[in-house]
Amino acid sequence: MVLPTLVVVSGPAGGYGKTTLAHEIARAVGCPAICRDEIKEGMVHANPGFEPGPGDALTQRTLPTFFAVLELLLRAGTTVVAEAAFQDRLWRPGLEPLVRLARVRIIRCTVDPDTARARNLQRLAANPVRKAAHTPPRATGRRDGAFDPISLAVPTLLVDTTAGYDPRLPDIDVRQRF
User: Fold this and answer.
1) CA distance to 58, 150, 165, 166, per residue, from 51 (Å)
2) pLDDT tens for residues 39-92?
């Protein structure tokens, strides 16, 4: 049996194009995209009056739910695209067990910082559920450049999302080695 592929789309939080790229790759491959923020946003609907904050209760529930969904799909033999910020210290422990279940490929999004800020502001203004679910970036105490990328020994590709995708989407072959 050939293992399914787990495409991990990562990068710093806020406006880096991770979710958009994850959904585009999933459509191109023909598989589901599982996005951490979308799981948390779904939880907000069942928690009226929720107030986001660093390490809030929904954030704590989202992480194990995210990895449980990925494991379930991979054990069923499903190729899947997983999207989140994927800071190494927080996310590597959840990803390491999945290496036995799938061929893992990491895509790390990069973008011009001004573009990221503009995208993030636009997203928050356009989606009230997103705004209700997530702590504003400045409230987390994170600084630009504080991102610690995943350090798994698997094929990794940098994709600049500033103006489209570089490399272009058709050139990102997640089934092969990057």
Assistant:
1) 10, 29, 34, 37
2) 998 998 899 888 888 889 898 999 999 999 999 999 999 999 999 989 899 899
Is residue 133 within 8 Å of residue 41, measured between CB atoms? Answer: yes
* Range list of β-strands (E), 24-64: 33-35
CATH of the domain at 120: 3.40.50.300
CA dihedral for 116, 121, 127, 132, sign (positive or negative): positive
Q: Is residue 22 part of a domain?
A: yes
* E strands, 29-83, in order: 33-35, 80-83
Give per-residue pLDDT as tens, 54-64. Answer: 889 898 999 99
As a whole number of Å, the CA-based R_g of the chain is 16
Asked if 39 and 62 count as a contact pair (C-beta separation under 8 A), the reply is yes
Other Cβ atoms closer than 10 A to 147: 18
What single-letter DSSP state applies at residue 77?
T
Closest CA to 2 of 178, 127, 177, 175: 175
- Assess if residue 178 is contained within a domain: no
pTM, two decimal places? 0.86
Q: Which domain holds residue 9?
A: 5-171
Phi (first) and psi of residue 80, to 5 degrees: -145, 150
